[in-house]
Fold this protein.
Amino acid sequence: MLSVDKSSRFDFDAVADTYDQWYETAEGAMYDHLEKKAVSRYLRQNAQGEKLLEVGCGTGYWGRFFSDCGFAVTGVDVSERMIKIAQNKNITNASFQIADGHSLPFADNSFDVTVAITTLEFVGNAELVLQEMVRCTCKPSGQLLIGALNALAPLNRNRQENPESLYAKAKLFSSDQLKKILGKYGKTQVCTVGFIPGQKRLLSLSPFIDMVSRFLHLPYGVFIVGKVIL
């Protein structure tokens, strides 16, 4: 078993069994909808059979989404408990294994697309993980796609104020910071999404609010998506 302390800012084994419950709430489901819609806009289309590596795959929640998009998914994570949960889901055309993003056990140019969703915030060395992801991605024309929690979002700031939460140990990024660290690998596109009102009675308006906020390029959405074509 890998040493979580050396590769992650938080022991995700401790929250693995309840991790997916957030998506079952009305608020979590709305964030999930907006985030996946944003990722879909940046994700390679007509991906039938293309190989996708997800670093920090957790319980396989996003792995199922990528599989449904047509990718052959390989997911890796340092959390043994998270990997067991992902494997038990028996997701079509997807496999999951314990591995550290700082030293990925794959040959150069092995994947068409390499993804990390809310992973870089929790690793020990985000730039080293990115270097490993780039190494494993086909060049030219391979795609690197990152989803990250926005350091400027009020919700994320509130989450970090709780010393007992996993967010307290996270190192979040702003859209400018994410664009900067991705920019060294190629032309980068970044967008910020996840603009949801604080009042639950207004939750149904979230897609409209999100659309307007993105149009105005507001920097405070909960989730950032960045894409690089290598």
Remarks:
- Confidence is low (pLDDT under 50) at residues 1-6.
